[in-house]
Amino acid sequence: MSQTVARAIDIVAFVSRRHRTLGEIADHLGVHKSTALRILQTLEDGGFVRRVPDHRYAMGFQLIAYGQLALDQVEARALARPILQELSDRSGHTVHFAELAGDRVVYVDKIDGRGSVAMGSRIGLPAILHTAGVAKAILAHQPDRARWLSICDYERFTPTTLTGPEELSAELDRVRERGWAEDDGEHEDFLNCVALPVYDARGQVTHSLSVTALKVVAPLAELRAHLDEYRTAAHRISRALGWGGDDHGRR
């Protein structure tokens, strides 16, 4: 990959998190502002970034169009969507669907619950590996755990965040043993979730779903009380993907 293309990709990822100034982008790339500006102008012409009123740069609207086209091609998302919608309608909570994609776990669908509040998850963005329930539900079943543990940055967001490979590995052991994962306010302290693995036709965990709620509305104990319902939804999606097992989430 050419250096210019690599920098362009880096810029798009950098501004997708929040609006950035030219100086911030140049510092992130380790280049002069003039170099960063030339790449930004090309990206802006293509609709991949845009300038916002505070003289910062944000993700461009063309990416949304391309992202929707890509999502439309994800068969698993299409198969899972009606089941996810049913689950959200019944529970009233936000439901996420995530996919293993290279070295990331990416949100490929999200259905907001009733009275939903703003949260950091967005369709097309990667889940934070050491905090997100959807990520832990997938990672617990990967054979190359050591590699995944080395990829995590273990940034502390809240008092319950797991901040080291030993902690995360122990948590993944628990996830695999009990068949489900959770996020106990580990990224956003006012939210919690439970998550379940989704198997493909090979019996491998390639996707996961989670049910997320405000702690004041449904604390973890309440979400756990509905695990059988959530497990049934994950099982239905796994069967739609060709999985032939019958003891979902318990290997």
From TrEMBL:
Keyword Lipoprotein set for record: no
InterPro entries in UniProt: ArsR-like_HTH, GAF-like_dom_sf, HTH_MetabolicPath_Reg, Tscrpt_reg_IclR_C, Tscrpt_reg_IclR_N, WH-like_DNA-bd_sf, WH_DNA-bd_sf
Classification via Pfam families: HTH_IclR, IclR_C
This protein's UniProt keywords: DNA-binding, Transcription, Transcription regulation
HTH iclR-type domain ranges (all copies): 2-61
Key word Transcription regulation present: yes
SMART domains: HTH_ICLR (SM00346)
Listed CDD domains: HTH_ARSR
Domain IclR-ED: 62-243
Annotated transmembrane regions: none
Signal sequence range: none
Name of the molecule in the record: IclR family transcriptional regulator
